[in-house]
Each structure stands twice: as C-alpha cells, then as structure tokens.
Amino acid sequence: IVKPASGVGQDIRPVGSDMGANELVLRAGEMIGAAEVGIMAAVAATHVKVYPKPKVCILSTGDELVDVKEAGTLEYGQIPDSNRPMLMSSVRSNGGEAVDLGMARDEEGGLEACLQAAIKSGAQMLLTSGGVSMGDRDLVKPLLEKHGKVHFGRVLMKPGKPLTFATIDTPAADGTQPHRLLVLALPGNPVSSLVCFNLVAVPALRKMAGWTNPMLRRLHVSLGQDLKLDPERPEYHRATLCWRDGQIIAESTGRQISSRLLSMRSANALLELPQASGVLKAGTVVSALLIGDLSLSEGMHAPLIHPASL
Q1: Taken in order 25, 29, 30, 32, is the CA torsion positive or negative?
Q2: Phi-psi region of 118 (alpha: psi -120 to 50; beta: other; left: phi over 0)
Q3: H or E element at residue 129
Q4: How confident is the model at residue 276 (pLDDT cuts 50, 70, 90)?
Q5: Which of 156, 169, 230, 250 is most solvent-facing, going by the fewest CB within 10 Å?
Q6: First to last CA, the chain
Q7: Secondary structure class of 99 (helix, strand, coil)
Q8: Cα torsion angle, 196, 140, 61, 170, sign
Q9: Which pTM was predicted?
Q10: Using one digit for the tens of pLDDT, what is the confidence trace for 80-120?
C-alpha cells in the first residue's frame, strides 16, 4: 500500500535537520555508548579524549582460605576464596581494570609484600577482604596505619560494620604530585564485602572514570512483605525489584546473614532500612539503592506484541 504524498517535501529530510551547524552534540562527562559512537562517526570525530579505566588491585586475606582451583578437597577449617573472583568480576563490570594480588595469610610479612605490590603497580585503588575485625590475627588495619592514614575503621551499618578506608601517598620520583592509593579494606564475610563494594567502591570508581553523578541511583519502592528492623544499626537489606499492580515492589532475597551469598544472587537493590525497633509492614514505602539491572526483574519487560494485533 502506497500512501499519496500530502505535500511537497514530505518524507524528505532537509540538510542539517539531524545536527545543525555548530550544534553541541556531546558534552564532557557523558558516557560513550552505541548512540554516542554513531554521533561521533556522523561528525567525523575519530579521536576523543576519554578517562582511563581505574586500575584496582584485589587481595584476599586469611589462613582459612583456599584458592578456588584447589578447593575440591577442603580440610576442616578451610573455605574457598569466593571474595576475590567476586570482587574482580564486580570491578570489571563497573568499568575498572582488575589486578589479582592473590591471597595472603594472616602474617605481617606476606601482607606487607602484597601492599607493596599494590603500591608499585600504580593502581588507583586496593580492595582487601578480611583481616579488619577485632581478632588478634586481623592485621590489615595496623598495616594501613603504618603506611598511610586510616580515615575510618568502623561504620554504623549492617552488614559491613568493620569497613575500613585508608589512603597511602607515595612520593613521585620526579618530584611531581604524589601518587595516592585508595584502600578499601572490606569485611571478610562475602555479603558484607559485596554490599560495601557497591556502597563505597562503585561511586569511587565512577568518579575516577569521569561520571558527573557517580552516586548510586535511589528510588522509592513498596515492601512486598513485613521486614523486621534492627534497633542497633541501619540496614541495607538485599532485595529484588519487580513491577506489580502499577508500582515497584521490593521482594526480600531471604535470610540476610552476612555469610549467605545466596542473598545477593538475584538482588538488584539495597533497601535502606532505618535503625529502629519493630517491623515495617508490607506495602510500606522505603528508599532503595540500585545495584543491578532492572531489565532482568519480573514484570520490568515490555509486553509481547503479536503481529496479529497490529
């Protein structure tokens, strides 16, 4: 079926209708995706200045850890090192370059060698997991105090209370600006480690990568079930968001103990629950921080359109 033209020039694109002369097409700080690459090609911009990927070293600590490649025959008191591959994947998925420093036992010499390797690598960030609680074998925090400045070592939050942040400045050989290494010493429990990574490391990586607004996106959601509050600490409750009855519903991922990594498996949001006694009833509206892709959630996809209905 060919429709007759209703006037002169119909369906003809005038010169400059897509981009005018001297029109600003991309701003500094904008993320480059498929459309932006096409725009650059359209204006013959074959070379542009971009931010480099942040370089991040990852180190697991603990005498109990066994490399995942050797975890087929665990002895009593041993656990597979799940934090290191998890954090390396998280760094890469958030635009960083991950450098594997392996595992270090709870010994000053081994930890010192790994810290020096991170400093010499020229990385912008070091992520460690474990060794920051209150035990006599938790040696990471004293090591950071020895070589740099510890800005905080405990946080009123659940999970992630032992989270530690430090900076280490290394003088430049040519006398220019010292190189600063940001150190995030994450808790050893895997859920605590990943929650802290999302809350603290992700915004830092985004800032290094040039994001104009690096903070996690926040939205309001309705609880899908009753949730018990913690009277001692505010909590970041793992949840999966879905679209139901015209609103975004947050469904808890189940038991929230900090060692149960299954609670992060389908989570795409952290519910910000206040420090208080009692229970938040189903249907209560709370704030949530996005940590995952909403397109994979139930009800978030567009309805299927059959050709017969067109």
Answers
A1: positive
A2: alpha
A3: strand 125-129
A4: very high
A5: 156
A6: 16
A7: strand
A8: positive
A9: 0.90
A10: 999 999 999 999 999 999 999 999 999 999 999 999 999 99
Amino acid, res. 32: I
CA distances from 289 to 14, 129, 247, 260, 271 (A): 45, 23, 16, 20, 6
Residue 275 is predicted with a pLDDT of 98
Only one residue has tokens 């040519």, namely 174
pLDDT of the residue at 240: 97
Per-residue pLDDT band for 3 (boundaries 50, 70, 90) equals confident
For residues 171 and 156, the model is more confident at 156
Q: How far, in Å, CA of 160 to CA of 138, rounded?
A: 15
Helices (H) and strands (E) in the chain, counts: 6, 15
Q: Which residue has the higher pLDDT, 167 or 304?
A: 167
64/126 Cα distance (integer angstroms): 21
- 261 by Cβ neighbours in 10 Å (0-12 / 13-18 / 19+) ranks as middle
Closest CA to 118 of 101, 93, 97, 141: 101
State percent of the chain over pLDDT 70.
95
Q: What are phi and psi of 197, to 5 degrees?
A: -60, -45
Q: Count of alpha carbons within 13 Å of 267, Cβ hemisphere only?
A: 26
| Strand spans (E) along 141-234 | 149-152, 164-170, 179-186, 218-223, 227-228
Rg, the chain, Cα only: 24
Q: In whole angstroms, give the CA distance from residue 155 to residue 243.
A: 33
As to burial, measured by CB atoms within 10 angstroms (0-12 exposed, 13-18 middle, 19+ buried), residue 286 is: middle
How far does Cα 268 stand from its chain's mean position? 11
Residue type, 168: I
